[in-house]
Amino acid sequence: MSSQSTAPTAAQNATLDSKCPQGPIQDRWDRHRFQTKLVNPANKRRFHVLVVGTGLAGASAAATLAELGYRVSVFCIHESPRRAHSIAAQGGINAAKNYPNDGDSIWRLFYDTIKGGDYRARESNVYRLAQISNHIIDQCVAQGVPFAREYGGLLSNRSFGGAQVSRTFYARGQTGQQLLLGAYQALMRQVGEKKIQLYSRREMLDVVVADGVARGIVCRELGSGKIESFAGDAVLLATGGYGNVFYLSTNAKLSNATAAWRAHRRGAFFANPCFTQIHPTCIPVSGSHQSKLTLMSESLRNDGRVWVPQKRDDDRPPAAIPAAERDYFLERKYPSFGNLVPRDVASRNAKQVCDEGRGVGSSKMSVYLDFGDAIARDGAPKIAEKYGNLFQMYQRITAEDPYHSPMRIYPAVHYTMGGLWVDYNLESTIPGLFVLGEANFSDHGANRLGASALMQGLADGYFVIPATLGSHLAGRKLPPVSTAHPAFAAAEQDVQQRVERLLSINGKRGADDFHRELGLIVWNYCGMARNAKGLDLALGKVGALREEFWHNLRVLGSAQELNQSLERAGRVADFLELAELMIVDARHREESCGGHFREEYQTEDGEARRNDAQFAYAAAWQHTAPGADKGGQPSWSLHKEPLNFEFVSLSQRSYQ
Amino acid sequence: MNNRLFALATSSIGRKALMALTGLGLIGFLVVHLAGNLTLLAGSDGAAFNSYARTIESNPLLPLAEVGLAALFLAHIVLGIRQAAGNREARPVGYRQFQSHGNRKVSTSSMLVTGLIVLVFLVVHISDFRLAARHPQGLAYMVHERMRQPLGAAVYLLGVGALGVHLWHAFQSLFQSLGLRHPRYSPLIDKAGRGLAVLLALGFAVLPVYTWVASPAKAAAKAPAESTSSAVSGPHDSSPAAATPSVTKEPR
Amino acid sequence: MSADHAPSSGMRLTLNIWRQSGPADAGRMETYHLDGISPDMSFLEMLDVLNVRLEREGREPVAFDHDCREGICGSCGVMIDGNAHGPEAETATCQLHMRSFADGAALTIEPFRAKGFPVLKDLVLDRSAFDRIIAAGGFISANTGCAVDANSTPVAKSDAELSMDAAQCIGCGACVAACPNAAAMLFVGAKIAHLGLLPQGQPERSKRVLAMARQMEAEGFGSCSNYYECEAACPKAISVENIARLNRDYLRAGLTTRD
Ligand SMILES: Cc1cc2nc3c(=O)[nH]c(=O)nc-3n(C[C@H](O)[C@H](O)[C@H](O)COP(=O)(O)OP(=O)(O)OC[C@H]3O[C@@H](n4cnc5c(N)ncnc54)[C@H](O)[C@@H]3O)c2cc1C
Ligand code: FES
To answer: A249, A303, A310, A534: least buried by Cβ within 10 Å?
Structure first.
């Protein structure tokens, strides 16, 4: 093992300091910004900031920091920063503008987000997010994001994900694309002005912690395989979520946890890993060849009715099943919200009816989403106007025509609320290592509301980090460091060895094969519903799979070339460990909340039952065997960040 | 000439615009030329045509116009070839298979070829009628003579045909290159362009056809056969021919 | 890769695929036989299957770029039988399904080709030329924090829609690939239109178009012959009207800017 240090984690076994300001919640962000040291404008160009990831969070952060005068280097695994996974977000972005005058406010967005997250998020962060939301829209419009508009030329809003106010801004079904292009263009402007150095096709494979502070990264240049080190004064990770641990998810294929996981191994705590979001309206799996799942907008549930046959193994085509023999289970169980219940509730119920043997389609793992009544009521043209492109997408993928027979949907992994633990400054437990966007754990608690991830990513990048980075850069003494520091050589050597190890196992199974198996284990035991027995079983299975991985992996080709199998193998290796931590976390959290549904903890009606007395905290896990890379047994210790609710009173969610 | 204009004119978009503008100028010339040609149809003796020719030739500004016209042609041709060469460079390794889905017709992908055919024809045509010694019986007679010969007529028809095909694409294309496109008007421009291509081609084709069909007897009556360079070798052996006083020699 | 054992159902295919070990390699076509392909598979899943089999046989899998697999990131894109992104209109390679092909078909799969898009390996390209074109001017300079309220700048709905039509470009490069001149005019035109149709885009309109067009040429892309192959190949059906707008804006800027 190397001589590289891991962060000394001052927090060792103490409670974590979230650094949240005190006082009236409306004033906290202002006060915090005032109290944070400013970096002298003349000094800014002396500071070199490394930004890893060019999704909404990374691109917006990099552009803004460069505008402020910092020297910035940006890294992404993609060929171009514009291809980051954020590009795929469809539905929209929330803000508390209250343009429709329907009673929205910063306070309501704050409240909805805390409640939607099932009271497992930090009040201070969420309030700040709601405050900033409005500036994001202003900023994006100024950049030329072509949001939908009304005939009068003003911005159009819609209600999204069951929200009772219309606070979602959107650009057709391509909001993520347009927001990302806005941030990407801002980023590229700085690249053009030589204020940002862009390194694409670079995979960060380690964080370099020198003298207890994150001072650099080690990357692999994916075209040539060259291992390169970069030194700087702060490292920002904006590397996205880890939903692909499930193999099948709506995340883009390259989305991965490696950057976060490498940081975790160097001392950054990982918080709430078991909080994952399953989206109810996805196109079901069609066969064992399936490589990823496609999300269809939630808006479909506004007009589609979800049902399955009442009888098990009913093989009749949907049209042959009379209304009396159909079970519109969401409408039946949740008369007031009906088909519009939150994502976690809709997903869980779909799973339940399929588990009962009442699923439809050849795999029996889907439920109908039927537009028959809506078409009869409004006519096909009206429905086509609203959902035409979604119907077309569905038809393209499944070759079934939703105008004539009901769609089939099934839940799919969509988003991960968990991530690297960060304080109010977005700083992880490694000083100088900041984490932004989906990669951190901060704002969504146990469940994320629709259209809030884009908001959070951009809030982090455009507005939070530019203000809080000063706490580190101006607040700490940072001796000059270069890649000559021994920590760099050590980290490079670790990376090199790991790559060689992956190539030299020379077993029989490809990385994808392991990944599929891993995904199935996590999906079955740590997916929409979990229980102690299943989780214990899964822990053993994942451990065994990880063991096999390091003995039976096969990666062809060499390290000195573009080698996509090698890239995947490294990512799968990290997913294998992360999966273990997810299971450990899910096992320890003996309550149900948001996306974490423990079957043992439910109300008589089958709803999630929280245990606020014992579990109103964020679970931050510290990796305690940091040297045990390359297949050794990982182990963790738990740190709890208590969550205090001063402004919102805890209550049980109810959608009946 | 300042830098900005130079940059504009030498940029790929600028070059395309210049091609469009020169093309437009050439189309204008063709329309006038055709109108002139059609005077041949007015009366069997070609008097109208001859007097039209004389009027033009006696205009003191003719040399200037001819220089201008030559410049238009030259610019159009050089730009076209330059563009084609550059475009070839933009894809050093080609495809094994390629299928077209654009609006490409024969006309579109053959712009360079039809352009070159027109160029060759042009040289023949100029040497035949512009540079060759004027026959005492007038230009109309020369035209009849030329068109009466199968080879002469064939070359002429080929040139005119290529021109039509060239214009089929060119007209709407020039609007696009100048940035003039609008969903309401572009379909009209498209149609107008094709109509123009057909009209010009047919219009010019009328001459040989008329010569053959309408006045074959007359055309055949006197055939001094003194005649002229063959179409193919035209450019070379026509220039040494003695110039008649009425012909102003151009620098080319 | 052979079909001899395991009586497999599903489609049989012959694949002629461009293989090139690195930027310096000359490259060549190689032929593979594949069976047991489900018509419900996506085209990329078919390549996944091929790769698994190749790996199993100890042969290097075919490298190809992909990410979202739903037609929005612009990573994927190959020529299939001479069609950029394959035979279906308005469909990116990743959205193509095998039911679009006949059982027993022989498919020719080549990388997008252009001087501006060097091949890195097999079907993987370097399209960073597009990034440099954007860096040259494909943006609105609006530093974070300086923005006025979003509704203080009304935009006619029709302009917003047209702008969005153009902004949908996924930067895949199919327009370049399909263009006989390997021109990038549709890509650049789309960005010019996206930003130029909005009031926010006006201050830099001239500067933007001049800079982007200059970079486009510097990257070695060809010029436009108005073949309109680009529009037909574009997975987002972006209109060549945007090219006219680019021409118009460029000429206007070139003729009228003062600096
Ligand atoms: C189908 C779908 C639809 C969605 N729709 C919505 C929606 O409507 N509204 C909403 O609010 N949210 C939505 N979301 C969620 C939202 O899109 C994401 O949470 C968000 O975009 C994440 O942004 P990010 O910047 O954190 O990371 P990402 O966009 O995932 O970017 C990660 C970046 O990190 C880079 N990277 C990763 N690993 C490394 C490494 N090791 N080294 C170097 N670089 C690395 C990548 O290249 C990339 O640039 C949707 C998600 C999905 C899957
Ligand atoms: S993989 Fe993203 S567009 Fe095809």
So the answer is: A310
C141 shares a domain with C101:
no
pLDDT tens digits for A126-174?
999 999 999 999 999 999 999 999 999 999 999 887 788 999 999 998 9
Domains plus CATH for chain A? Answer: 279-412 (3.90.700.10), 495-612 (1.20.58.100)
3-state secondary structure of C235: coil
Q: Are B8 and C251 an interchain contact pair (Cβ–Cβ within 8 Å)?
A: yes
- Give start and end residues of each alpha helix (H) in A337-399: 343-355, 372-378, 380-398
Full residue range of the structural domain in which residue C180 is found: 128-256
CATH number of the domain enclosing C34: 3.10.20.30
C95 CA: nearest ligand 2 atom: 4
C149 with C252, same domain: the answer is: yes
Same domain? For C96 and C142 the reply is no
Is residue C107 located within the same domain as residue C16?
yes
Cα torsion A187, A190, A191, A194 to 10°: value is: -160
Q: Is the CB of A277 under 6 A from ligand 1?
A: no
Q: How many domains does chain C have?
A: 2
pLDDT, mean over chain A: 94
Q: Which of residues 174-193 of B touch C (CB under 8 A)?
A: 175-183, 186
| CATH code assigned at C138 | 1.10.1060.10
Claim to verify: residue C148 and residue C197 sit in the same structural domain: yes
C-alpha triplet A346, A348, A351: angle, nearest 5°: 110
A167 CB near ligand 1 (under 6 Å): no
The CATH number of B15-90+105-218 is 1.20.1300.10
Of C89, C119, C149, the domain-final residue? C119
- Report which residue type is found at A200: S
User: Is C83 within 8 Å of chain B by CB?
Assistant: yes
Q: Based on the fold, state whether residues C108 and C158 are members of the same structural domain.
A: no
Tens digits of per-residue pLDDT, B124-169? Answer: 999 888 888 888 888 888 888 888 888 988 999 999 999 999 999 9
Tokens representing residue A359 in the block: 């699923």
Is B1 in CB contact (< 8 Å) with chain C? Answer: no
Sort A500 into a burial class: Cβ within 10 Å, 0-12 / 13-18 / 19+: exposed
Judge whether residue A114 has pLDDT over 70.
yes
Taking 50 as the threshold, does the pLDDT of residue A12 lie above it?
no
- Distance from C-alpha of C175 to C-alpha of C198, rounded to nearest angstrom: 24
Contacts of B123 (CB under 8 A, 6+ apart): B234, B235
Give the residue extent of every domain in chain B. 15-90+105-218
Ligand 2: centre distance to CA C112 (Å):
14
pTM: 0.94
Give residue C213's Cα distance to chain centre.
18
Query: Are C84 and C147 in a shared domain?
Result: no
Structure confidence by residue, pLDDT tens digits, A214-258: 999 999 999 999 999 999 999 999 999 999 999 999 999 999 999
Listed in sequence order, the residues at least 6 apart from A338 whose beta carbon sits closer than 8 Å to its beta carbon are A330, A331
- Residue A388, pLDDT score: 87
Residue at which a domain ends, from C119, C149, C174: C119
| Distance separating alpha carbons of residues A315 and A364, to the nearest angstrom | 10
Q: Is A106 in the pocket of ligand 1 (CB under 6 A)?
A: no
Instruction: Give the active site residue among A28, A167, A215, A343.
Output: A343
Q: What is the mean pLDDT of residues A323-343?
A: 92
CA C205/CA A462 separation, integer angstroms: 25
Least confident of A588-592, B158-162, C5-9: C5-9
C26 and C86: one domain?
yes
pLDDT for residue C95: 96
What are the distances in angstroms from CA C84 to CA A241, C78, C178?
32, 6, 6
Which residue in this structure is represented by tokens 């190539």?
A: A503
From chain A, pick out residues whose CB is under 8 angstroms from the CB of C52. 510, 512-513
